[in-house]
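SECTION: protein entry
WANTED: fold as tokens:
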Amino acid sequence: MTKIDFTKLTVQVSFNGAKRVYNIAGSLGNDMMFNGSVICDIGFEELAKEIYFSKGEVEVPEKYAQYILRVMEQCNYTAALRREVTRLLHEQ
């Protein structure tokens, strides 16, 4: 299980190293529940709600990592955001 703070994702946004902090908790939670085409199980829906209402770190079970990334791709999150969430999901 990985802990991620979706309210404070620091992402590199240029080759010169510029970084930006994003809060994607609300949009990602909504997309997981309502806009993506991924239907997983009740646990995934509960995770979507937890992410949406989060004020800090959320524990993300490993089994949902691929589904979160699929939702992010389907809902056109930037490559920089997808890259950072992928890195965080695969940290041990």
